[in-house]
Amino acid sequence: MALKRTTKVEPNFSMSSMTDIVFLLLIFFLVTSTLVNPNALKLLLPKSTGQVSAKATVSVSIKHYPETGTFTYHINGDEQPVPFREIEGDLEELLMDEPDPTFSIYADETVPIKEVVAVMNIAKRNHYKVIMATRPE
Fold it and tell me: What are the CA-CA distances from residue 27 to residues 32, 36, 37 (Å)?
């Protein structure tokens, strides 16, 4: 009497669970990549080949509106502009507990150097280190 097995092993497997994982990872990386950029303002930074290894904890952005000849100052990429007279107090508050207080300046390419130097003078008065943000050449 010959007994035969009626069940056969199929060498196929379903890829649906693998594609679900890939799509979830894709969504995760897309969402987290938008949180990485600390500077939410659209600024055209000047080009530079130099790189700085120091890490700034606070950023001051200077946006230039050439059509009106005005400037707005933003701390940490906030959409709400800060008057220039309040920048020093805000920086003192934000950098108070830092062991090595450092902030970076993000200035439009068209911002006159006079405006950038005014922010640098705040750093000099308070003994802060300053990093001038540029885009790679």
Answer: 9, 15, 17
| Global pTM exceeds 0.70 | no
Note down the domain range covering 128.
47-136
Number of Cβ within a 10 Å radius of residue 105? 19
Q: Is the residue at 114 inside a domain?
A: yes
DSSP-H helix ranges across the chain = 16-36, 84-95, 113-126
What's the CATH number where 56 sits? 3.30.420.270
CA-derived radius of gyration, the chain: 26
Distance CA 76, CA 57 (A): 9
Structure-token pair, residue 9: 């092993």
Each residue of 1-43: pLDDT tens digit?
A: 666 777 777 777 777 888 889 999 999 888 877 665 555 556 5
Q: Is residue 61 part of a domain?
A: yes
pLDDT in tens, 65-124: 889 989 999 998 888 999 999 999 999 999 988 888 888 898 888 888 898 999 999 999
